[in-house]
Amino acid sequence: MAEESTKPSLTSASKFPLAQEAAELYRDVLLTMNEHSIPYAVAGAFALQAYTGIWRVTKDLDLFLKLSDVPRALDRLCQRGFHCETPDPVWLSKARRGEYFVDLISGMSNAVIVVDDTWIKRARRAKIAGVASRIISAEDLIGSKLFVSRRERFDGADIAHIIYRTQGQLDWERILELASEHWEMVLWALVLFRYVYPAHTDYIPAPLWQDLLFRYMHLVQHPDRKAPFRGSLVDENMFSVDMKDWGLENLQEQYRARFLQNPPQTEPGVIQKKFGT
After folding, report:
1. Mean pLDDT across the stretch 174-198?
2. List of residues 6+ apart from 62 with CB closer than 8 A
3. H/E segment holding residue 41
4. What is the pLDDT of residues 246-261, one digit of tens each?
5. Which of 13-17, 23-27, 159-163 has the lowest mean pLDDT?
6. CB–CB of 101/95 below 8 Å?
7. Where are the beta strands (DSSP E) in 76-222?
8. Pick the CATH number of 10-222 from 2.60.40.790, 3.10.450.350, 1.20.1420.30, 3.30.460.40
């Protein structure tokens, strides 16, 4: 999920060898999580490979976990010699050792989607760097990528690849559940898939096409003049001119503020804490 650089990752359908330093760090992290019974699901490059066969070389391991479990994970990793910090209390903490690191992700940066128990329960068994682990479900992986549509990073291709390689054998109700009122982001991803793979439109169930297109046309034909500007939920930087110069509201700011005022199942002040070796 979280990239420290805008430089593209090396991607291929051929397997890349995992660097020894990376493998050691990933094993250490996963063993720590397992030993202390901290629930998590591996996402990122490992999950993408599991569902598409695409290998992507990165310097980080993405773990999805509930916000309430993040402080305990950070504490345990700090005890193992990692340098730990929480750069964004809404969704991201990090544990680093050398040039490799683990991202502890509890939701999306815009605070629209939050990881809960269902993400962990839906994860499937896998072995990562030789350690028994669990990988995020394909549906939740898609959900985690719906709002990654920035100038420097766009995960729409990943979503298209997941649909293509699974031949659409997905729990679409789960994906819509994650998107909730933002279902248009799902439709956007499906339109991109249909454009890229026109011979495989049937990978998307016909009733789903009909439902989403019917909803969409209803909105088009009956516009809500009081509907809020939502550009910041897509990317607050690309749409900054709307808010700074044209006076439109910053909806992401509202989502994040509401989240920070009432974080799910987290002790007061804990998520603000920073750890270091």
Report:
1. 98
2. 1, 2, 42, 43, 44, 45, 46, 47, 102, 103, 105
3. strand 41-42
4. 999 999 999 999 999 9
5. 13-17
6. yes
7. 83-88, 92-97, 100-105, 124-128, 131-135
8. 3.30.460.40
Q: What is the mean pLDDT of residues 262-267?
A: 66
Residue 99 in tokens: 């040039």
Question: What is the per-residue DSSP string for 201-242?
Answer: GGGS-HHHHHHHHHHHHHHHHS--TTPPP-HHHH-TTTTHHH
Residue-level length of the chain? 277
pLDDT of amino acid 53? 94
Kindly state the tokens that stand for 128: 């990562």
Tokens read off for 114:
């939050």
Q: How far apart are CA 235 and CA 88, in angstroms?
A: 16
Cβ–Cβ < 8 Å for 205, 169? no
| Cα(82)–Cα(21) distance, integer angstroms | 14
Q: Per-domain residue ranges for the chain?
A: 10-222
Neighbours of 108 (CB within 10 A): 24
CB atoms under 10 Å from CB of 49, counted, come to 17
* Whether the predicted pLDDT of 220 surpasses 70: yes
Give the tens place of pLDDT for each residue, 124-169.
999 999 999 999 999 999 999 999 999 889 999 999 999 999 999 9
Element (H, E) at 172: helix 172-179
